[in-house]
Each structure stands twice: as C-alpha cells, then as structure tokens.
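agent> fetching stored inputs for the NAP docking request
agent> found them:
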Amino acid sequence: MKNTPQIQVPPTMKASVYREFGGPEVLRYEDIPTPEPTAGEALVKVLAVAIDYIQLHIRHGGSGRIGSSDEAHYGIKDPPHIPGGMACVEVVGLGPNTEGVEIGTRHLVGGLRPGSYVEYGIVDATGLQPRPDGRPSPTAYPSSFTPEQAAAFDYAPVAYHTLKVAAGLQTGETVLIHAAAGGTGVLAVQLAKHFGAQVIATAGSEAKLQLVQELGADVAINYRTDDFVSTVLEATDGRGVNVVWESIGGEVFTRNLDCMAEGARMVSFGSNSFTGMGQVDFWPFWMKNLKLIGWGGVSNTQSRSPEIMEELIDLAQVGKLRPVVRHVYRFASASEAHRLIEERGSIGKVVLTP
Ligand SMILES: NC(=O)c1ccc[n+]([C@@H]2O[C@H](COP(=O)([O-])OP(=O)(O)OC[C@H]3O[C@@H](n4cnc5c(N)ncnc54)[C@H](OP(=O)(O)O)[C@@H]3O)[C@@H](O)[C@H]2O)c1
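agent> prediction call returned; pasting tokens
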C-alpha cells in the first residue's frame, strides 16, 4: 500500500549530487524523485545540513581510510552519490508503525536517505521518538537555536566525548587543540575550558586565532608562522601537554609526540590532511608512556547519551556553548562550500540550506 505523506510534498525535489569522484566541481544541483516513507520510516524536510569533513574524503573517492577506496570497509559505492552529514529536519510524513513520532517536530539526524543534500529525506522513525523519561533524545538540540546553529551544534557531542570520555581530560590539565577554529574545534575549545583545562589552540590565520581567543583559548598558535611544538613547550615550561585533540594526521600527528607530557593521551578522530601517521618514532611512546586513543563508530553513538545531551543543551541555553556558523550556502552552491573547506578558508561550521 502506498503511504501518503501528511503534508503535501512535490513529486520531485532538488538535490546536490555527484556522478563521478573528484574535486568540489563534481557536485551538481539536480531534480530527483521525492522519496516516500514505508513502514517504520518518516519523511523529513531538510532545514539545514552541516558539512562533515569526511564527505570531502568520500567525494574524492576515498573512504576516509588513507590511500584506499576500500568499499568493503566503509561501504563506499561508485557514484552517483548524494553526500551525507548531520541535518536539522522537520517531520512532514510518516509511514505505518511510527507511533510516538509527531508531524512538525524538529530533530538532528544522520543517515538520511538518499543522502543529506536534499529537500526531503527518509529516516528511521524509531530514532525520532521522545525518550519515555523526558530526557533529551540523541536527536535533540537547544530550542532557541536556528536550524543552521542546530546543525553545527551536532558536533558538540563529538567534542565532548573525545575530550572528556576518550581522553579523560581533567581540571587543571593542559590540552592542545588543533584546527581549533574549525566546526568541531570551536566547540572543543569552549568545552575544554568548561572542564577546567588550560587550552593551547592552533589555527592557520589571524582571524581564526582571534576567534579561538574570544572563545577562551589561553594560548593561540598560528602554525603557519610559528612552530607549534616549540611554542607548546615554551607555554608549558618544557613539560608538554596532557592531552592532544588530533584530527590532522600526517606530520602533525607525528610532531605532537614531541610536545606531550609524561603519560599524556592523544585522541585521534580524523585526518584533515588526508594522510596517515607519517613516519612514527615509537621512542616517545615508550619513554613518556604515551597513549593513543582512536575515536569514532560506536563512540559516536555513545556520545549522544541523555546525560551528555542534557549537559550540552544546558550549557548552550545559558550561552556557555555556542556553535560558530559564518558560512551558509544553498544546496545549489554546495561545490563552493566544499571548496571553501578544502582550501582551509572556513571558520566554524559550513552549513547548507535547501
Ligand atoms: N571519527 C568520527 O566519528 C568523527 C565525527 C565527526 C567529525 N570527525 C572529524 O573531526 C574533524 C573536524 O571536523 P570538522 O568538520 O569540524 O572540520 P574542520 O575542523 O572545520 O576542518 C577544516 C579545518 O581543518 C584545518 N586543517 C589543519 N590542517 C589541515 C590540512 N592539512 N588540510 C586541511 N585542513 C586542515 C584547517 O584549519 P586551520 O588551517 O586553521 O588549521 C581547516 O579550516 C575532521 O577530521 C572530521 O573528519 C570525526
């Protein structure tokens, strides 16, 4: 039986699609059929999408796994593709067996089908049901936020969990945050300060450094003009940092080892340089008893626990945690938005709207 969405939607919709792997220019704005929800599914209207760095890897034909387009590992199939990414959406239609989900409610969701850069998408309805105990669900966000802010806020659980749970950042410790003016970095700086840590931040321009200082960074390093390792050692009286928040990979990953304190932890959750660990010298690992912690997959799900969501939403409601959104593009200009990020020009999260 065909399901009719409760709010009238057009039979076709606009989407950003690429039909071959490549640079930002492969993204095209096209008409595709509007999907219909079946049992257990909701049809949602996309209000805003935060561009996820991993989508740049995938668009280039990689899976995020260095030097690989390993389909078996990440399920990356040949194009056509509509990029994914976390989206702020409104429920506009429901298939059968979707009790508890209400038309008109707004959520933050991942895993939209056929992708996120679309006007309407399908999502499993179970994730949209309110929690029976009234606490925030994994799809919740601060009610005062615009859809663009909400999409950017979605990276707050990532920042929280990588710092607090994975790396175990403690009050009084020092943390080195790379890409601190990035979409996730701006949230990490604010949360690290909230946890009572001393924050040393790196970024690649004066405008970015100014922002991270405004957000509370104690030391801000322009890694293009200053050597970050020697500046960190200087700022910590030669001791080094207790935690490194690492999403760059390559040479940066390797050099971090030289400015980590005895027993320090490095949490690795991305590779913006599109490269692996470089030539790693194990000596600092042994001599300083360093720990390397990988983060992703199931940790990403765990980072949306009611306790963490509650704390993050409370912090946002009182103005102590704010996402930074300075670049908003239409889906039709998705290639420009991808190019801005790839050329390291973005500050905060880059958000797309239909
Ligand atoms: N593991 C997971 O499940 C998971 C989930 C969410 C996000 N992530 C990761 O979290 C990281 C942050 O994501 P985001 O979307 O917020 O990105 P982002 O931090 O906004 O990324 C862009 C910034 O990275 C910095 N960067 C430093 N070195 C770079 C290089 N060699 N090449 C390109 N950029 C470089 C640039 O800023 P500067 O020039 O100022 O340094 C650039 O503006 C990404 O690695 C993403 O994959 C992982």
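agent> quick read of the result: The first helix runs from residue 54 to 59.
agent> awaiting further instructions
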